[in-house]
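Notes, Module 5: Reading structure tokens.

Key idea: the token line is not a picture. It is a compressed description, and you learn to read it the same way you learned to read a sequence, by spotting repeated patterns. We will look at two proteins. The first is printed below with its tokens.
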Amino acid sequence: MVGFYTVLRWLAVLFLVIASVVIFIMYFRGTFRDRIEYKIKNVPAPRDPRFPLALASLSNSVTTSGRLTGFWIEAEAINAARIAAICSAEHTIHFETFFMTPGRRVNDLADALIERAQAGVEVEIVVDQYGAKELSQRYWQRLRAAGINIHFYNDFNWKAPVDYFARTHRKLLLIDGKVCLIGGAGISDYWDGLDNIKDTGPWYDFEMRWEGEVVAVLEGVFMQHWTYVRGTADLDPRVFHPSPNNDAIVLVTAGDDPSYRASSVRALFQVSISSAKRRIWIASPYFLPDKNLKRELIIAKNNGIDVRILTNGSQCDKKFVYYASCELYGDLLKAGVQIYEYQPSMMHAKALLLDNYWVSSGSANFDPRSFFHNDELDISSADEQLVRNIEQMFLKGFAKSEKLDQTQWRKRSIWQRVLGRVVLFFQSQL
């Protein structure tokens, strides 16, 4: 019995040490600092000619132009579009991504990239080290043996261990400086529904293809990260050739190295929400608005604006985040904000639709990690085809979702509420 109590004491000491280390790290990461309350008023409406400039200046976005030339929903179509784009490359393939896991999709990607590299196409890849941690060295060796240049974003550095928390969450494919594909899907069979969350279908996500001057801007964004990982930025005219034209206005928001003071993505979302006159539809797999953004959504709803959220139900890859999200729904539901939980599988699409006119979409979620920690990449535009496609994406998503009401919300279990509250203690890191 004495031995049992000795072990118990040592376990208690170990727990206290671990808890102290975690709190110590959180303290130095600023978890407990007072949050800035962002206040904005008199924001121009999305149709106002002043709106793009107001949004760009407050969110540190680049104003350019472009045209949507492709839009795909769900894994089969998204991956087919990516492989077709890669196979069309004649000079360069620049690719940056966050999440990769072993399986058919990464193997298909490797086959296509190797074929192009062996045909003389320059292939440069930036992969987040944490997001691709499950892939073996053999996989990367095979790519490198074909002449593909690969760098990992933000390897662990014992000289600055806290820096490892910053990730690149971008998903960007650039072909010959002429075409770009951008969205939220990783390179993984998870998007086919082959995961451990017992889906009944593929993950709900989409991909966009853009052409025009915006591609040159995105080449610059890629090259910036390429230099971070010790690559050399090459502004060869074959790749970097901006050509202004009469395409729709496009804003490129590169949430690069954000901080609690300066978050381009957060500013993009708040200014956008404050501008709406008729409709705010938000799609995000992880929906964790702070008090500031919750208040803006409630004010919008009280002003008669149609506010809807398309997000995950319990079938998701991070249930603890789902439980935390649920704890934030009460005031929104009370105000009449409509919250739709996608049912067949994981909902991974990220989009913000304003009125019948403006869309923002890319890699950023509606959560603190995308606002204050990750390097993200979003595109915003009034391109008519994009607005129609995103609206249809929402409508299809709503049709496969369960709309929450206050009665359902109050019925969640005690343990779910407790776990959600515990997770919210770490909200700034989620």
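Here is the second protein, with the sequence above and the tokens below, as before.
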Amino acid sequence: MSSSGSTYGDIHRYEPARESTTAAIAIVLLTIIEVVFVGLFTYGLLNGWGLSELGNMYLGGVLAVIFIDLAFILMLYRKEFLPDVMIVKKRRRKWEDLYVREEEQYGTESFGDAWDQFKRAVYPYYKR
């Protein structure tokens, strides 16, 4: 589904998620494996496995497996259960910086309204 609108915030393209049952089952199984490895890591940490060189390497490997498993869970969830949405965004000019407004592109007076300049320096998103 796409729209022909070109104003800021319009949805340009929307593709619904596949939501496959296979991905849901895989996420559940990976979550169970994740819980088992987190339990193993916690057990090893509480029993002092990290005090020896071999145990420390073992705990590091288990922690690496935990994060890799979590990465696969998040990858499957993002690919199968989140829709692909493209919205129209406001295009920025090359000279624009995050804190520069269009009326201030050539700078401001040195000491004119110094209190407002101080507030903007302390809090950049200050609005009038």
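Summary for the second protein:
- The chain has a mean pLDDT of 80.
- The first helix runs from residue 21 to 46.
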